[in-house]
Amino acid sequence: MRRRQRLGLLLQLFLVLAASLLGVVTNYATNDGNAPFPLNILERAALPGLALLLVALVIGHFVAYRLENPPDPELTWDRSRIPFPGLEAFNEDEAAVFFGRDVQISEVVRRLHESGTDTPARFVTVVGASGSGKSSLVQAGVLPRLRAQRWMVLRPIVPGTDPLGALARSLSDVLDESVESVSRRLRRSETELASLLARARREKGRRLGRTLLVIDQLEELASLSGERDRNLFLASVTEALRRDRHLRVVATLRVEFLGDLLSGEHSRLFTSPVAIGAIDRAGLAEVIERPASLAGLRLEPGLIERIVADTGSGDALPLLAYLLQELYLSVGAGRTATLHDYAALGGVGGALSRHADQVVAELRDDGDPAEVLRVLLLFVTVTSEDATRRRVPLGSLEPAQRRIVDAFVDARLLVSDVHDGSPTAQVTHEALFRQWAPLRQEVRTHAERLRQRAELERWAADWERSERSPDYLLGGQRLALAEQWLDGLRQVGQETSELVAFVEASKRRDQGFLLRVSKGIAEYVLANVEQYPELAVLLSLAALSECAPTPVVQRALMAALSFSHGRLVLKGHTDTVRNIAWSPDGTMIATASRDGTARVWDAETGETTRDLTGHLGMVEMVAWSPDSTRLATASRDRTVRLWDVATGESTTRFADATDVVRGVAWSPDGRWIAGASRDRVVRVWEVATGRLSASLVGHEDNVLGIKWSPDGDRLATASHDQNVIVWDIISAKPQLVLRGHQDFVEGVDWSPDGRSIATASGDHTVRVWDASDGRQSLLIRGHRDRVWNVVWSPDGKSLATASADRTARVFSASDADEKAVLRGHDDGVWGVAWSPDGRRLVTGSEDGTARVWDLIPQTVERKVHTSHTASVTSVRCVRDWAVIVSAAEDGTVRLGGLGENDGASSLHQHGGKIRAVACSPDGQRLVSCGIDRRGVLWFVGGERQPVILDHDSAIVESAAWSPDGTRLATGAQDRSIRIWDAFDGSLLTVLTGHQDWVVGLDWSPGGGMIASSSDDRTARVWDLSTGRERFVLHGHDNWVDSVSWSPDESHLVTSSADWTARIWNISTGTQSAVLRGHEGRVPCVSWSPDGTRIATGSYDRTVRLWEPRDGSEIGVIGMHRDRVTCVDWTSDARSVVSGSFDTTVRVWPAEVDLERLQLLARRRVFRSLTVEERRAHMLAVAEDGQ
Length: 1186
What we know:
alpha+beta, Arc Repressor Mutant, subunit A, 6 domains, 31% strand, WD repeat, Ribosome assembly protein 4 (RSA4)
């Protein structure tokens, strides 16, 4: 248009200049009679010249007008063609029979001509309801006119699921470039479309020509396309309009989708649409009569009026077009259609439904009519707005489905074509599922399923267009949702092979990803479990439930539980829990808080049983009466109160202090109450009368802590003056002053035997003092901040401490060895107290909570024996008795039961660490071996004295009993194996051959052989009838620590410091399997009595089971807090017993109940993973950030 405008303007300028020149010449000619000869000629020809110029001006205007407004193209019609397209839209070839929309066509053409340089104005959107004829208007009305005006009109596109691909196919028609290449360029950048259009015009010789991009069914951008593709498509079109002033775009859009596009980032394109309404009665008559006339179809008088009257709104035009097509086909060209013919077809409203019903009836012999509807549902998709048509590849259909589709194609209700080089089909018009009641109802019934399929297809299309990049696959919650949706689609026959492939690929990738996440979490947990036990439990639970329940994650959870001491969290206080105390009867816990209250809690459930209110200031300390019936509290309101725990009432108030009372202590006999005050005075009151009995003066600063000696004769007080004073109660005089701390001393406690005093200080240390002379006997370091409190364990062997570093810790009272670190509080820990049985602790914190901790946390083990005080070196189960025999480096052999309440008895005879223990088959005798260079034969009943087995000054490392109980064998560091009489201890035989210590022995079930393992990296099988080696088994790369026979005597299993165990075939002496998986030395191995499993223990702290047939790992069944040293099976093969450097003997079920393990873990944690923690470990985070 601009070229024609410039041409018209040039013509006009030329005429104006010519006229001006003629005027000038004429002026010269008339002013002077002596004008030159040429001017004289012009003077005589002036009037004729003016007339000629006027005629030229008129002709110029006419030429410019015709260039700008060419006449409509001459349209002709082949009378042999059907003039009615039915449900299909009119196309350009059918422009001659398209009537009734002249006004709208002219408006769209005018908009495209007059849009100028404004980018949104050059994007003309034709908006109307479904069935209003938008596509027909553009293709049969607008496009022929623009082609006649020499516009370069690109092949119309339908966005579908891949709008950029559709655009690429249209551009490929006018470019010498493949569709794939154009598609890649379009996806590369939003500027590529403008470049491709400019190149297309150059190649077509239309450098200055106008270009029209036609987008039909633009609503598919919202209903079928993914968000990324939609945005890139619209961005590309917008950028092309901005860069290319020759480009125009016309698009058709269903009106209900206009709001979606107006709310998007490209809304400016859609602000001035051309609305297409219903055709009036005159227009409908024209739509009926004029195409019929062109095709030679005569209409009976009154028929046109009847059809117009019956035509409604909504889907009127497609229904009318379908009726007219059917009428034409039933009557034929050159004949007259009658009212009877019209009625026979069912009229405007019934023709389509009647025809569809007829197709279903014809298909009834081939299948269930319900199956027909299920197949037709494949051609419908549902978005948030409404149902729309869906293109289906014919190759994806089953033969039975294809027969149904072919029948509907033959009936012109479906239309087939080739799309992307493959045959496809779609509904001819959406009126089929809007007007035909059976399909309409089917769509309504399954609308949600179809909506889910549409969403899945968008995701799958994004994946396909990315060339199946793993980045576009689903994971986490979205994958779970997709699986759920696909199952639902499968139930109604709407799943597709593309969706199945997409979801399966996502599952494979997600499983791989989840396995990697699971492995990463497990590695983190195992590396950090001691530092962050609560986080370790939370992460392990998440990995099991959200990722993959792999053996390594199960192991991580066991490790986390072995370090997770948490049992209860006591919540209720609104400020710091300043102090805490466990009742002497073990049933209650009392807390003192800076919120001004004290509380009493049930020690088992954590429920509050009493809320003690009445103090007018913060409560600083609580103390139980010896009989657990009363509670004493000290407060900043300068008072001490006594409370009846049963009623929660305050019974006594001591108000003699002149400043804050920081501490309170009840005498062991319950007769006296002592209080420590900031006024530097310690006061003692008589409980019965409330009388002040004594005031102890001696501290030079606040008195912070106070405790009675176990005998009640002395009182220890701790002060801000950095000293502890031990007072004689009778004389009220200082007996000792403990000096040495470098900062305030707040915590103080007596050992249960009264011989020692422990103190806790702001100098980050705990110190132990001799209570008789005040000499410091132990200095404990470990806390990284001030230590507020210290308490002795009931057995006097351990000290528990509370610190501002947010931890409570347990130390050995003899050597300051750190036994446990309790982490979980979110702020400093102020108070700590032991349960009366010494198995639990309770702490109070500045975070406002109290926590109860298990000092020996259990995982899935059935029993934990804790009687040893050093590393356990050997365990044996008495086969027919429920008894465990264990030996340890504490020099003891202990016999313990398998039952819940079975205790343990000890045997002491060795003068040092015990290396091994073995039991006679009848359980009546034991042999133990130690570093005291001897074996000891024990008679359990005690009827005989132990028998000493002398090993010639060599440390004895191993022992084994013959199956008949008559002999026993020992292996020693002198490389020998000795066979002894099992009753009198006499030496029978010595076997030699090993080149290093003999550290493992096992007697064959038949009694004819002994297997031995040695630090010489071999295992050996000895024939006892000859005393000679039968086999020497080579294969391990380090010390061979342990050996065990299979019950049938056909195989042997060995374990080694090379981190493996190996199975050997005894008939050949060859290796048959290697058991790999442990991440540390494997010092112990045991074959189950039923021969079906092998148990190993490792320095990686795990107990594992293995399949003997192929050496595969069954799983981790147990996890110690430290290295595992020994394992053995119970006689029923249902449990494995293990010993460890952590000093415990534990009994594990041979089959781990994972659900029980997870339930136990959930009881050990009292919060959820934070969003930051989840993201840090690549766990899914919900959209709401939860």
